[in-house]
Design brief:
The protein has 3 helices and 10 strands. It is an alpha+beta fold. Keywords: Membrane, Transmembrane, Transmembrane helix.
Length: 199
């Protein structure tokens, strides 16, 4: 009997061997189940990795503050917060840091002279340390960026010297950005820490 005869015999149900397909169906169902479980596991793993890598995840947060000047109170600048994370503005003029270390300070400032020639100097102070930020002349805009070391022990304030009320207008934005990202270390030169280490 050739292959054509065998196929006709199977299709007609007579004579030769009978097809037993129940084992094949069980094997196919098991393979399909395993395949579906592997796809589901890969989807869950991919979603988990995707959510952990999103900018909103806790590991991705930058540490810093971005502020706009709202007024000058005596020689101190008062600010409103535009954005911040882990760095806080208190009483509109004192910046509280939680991490010691290197910070990038960036500033954009414009001064419009209304009357009299004037020069103003902007400084940032923390405890006994003072950092010159910018000198502004009448009718000009300036921007600057510098890296400075700050401590978590004292608040940061910004002062303006040479400002005479109602003789000029100033528009100013200031940012502080912690350069070590989400890592936060104590100041290694802190006297209390040195004392604990036996220095």
């Amino acid at each position: 009997m050739d292959s054509k005869d065998a196929r006709e015999s199977l299709e007609s149900g007579g004579g030769g061997a009978r097809c037993r397909c129940s084992n094949g169906r069980r094997n196919s169902a098991a393979v399909l189940l395993i395949h579906s479980l592997l796809i589901a596991a890969c989807a869950v793993l991919s979603l988990n990795i995707y959510l952990r890598e999103q900018p909103g995840s806790s590991k991705q947060h930058d540490v810093g503050i971005y502020m706009q000047m709202i007024e000058i109170d005596s020689d101190e600048l008062r600010f409103s917060t535009i954005w911040n994370h882990t760095v806080h503005l208190q009483d509109d003029k004192r910046v509280k840091l939680e991490c010691a270390g290197p910070y990038t300070v960036y500033l954009w400032a414009c001064m419009t002279k209304i009357s009299t020639e004037a020069v103003v100097n902007l400084t940032m102070e923390q405890g006994i340390k003072s950092f010159h930020l910018q000198t502004l002349w009448g009718n000009e805009c300036k921007e600057m960026q510098k890296e400075i070391m700050l401590s978590e022990k004292d608040d940061v304030t910004v002062y303006i010297k040479g400002y005479v009320k109602d003789t000029r207008k100033i528009r100013l934005f200031l940012g502080l950005h912690y350069m070590l990202g989400a890592q936060c270390f104590p100041n290694p030169l802190d006297p209390e820490l040195l004392k604990q280490l036996g220095y």
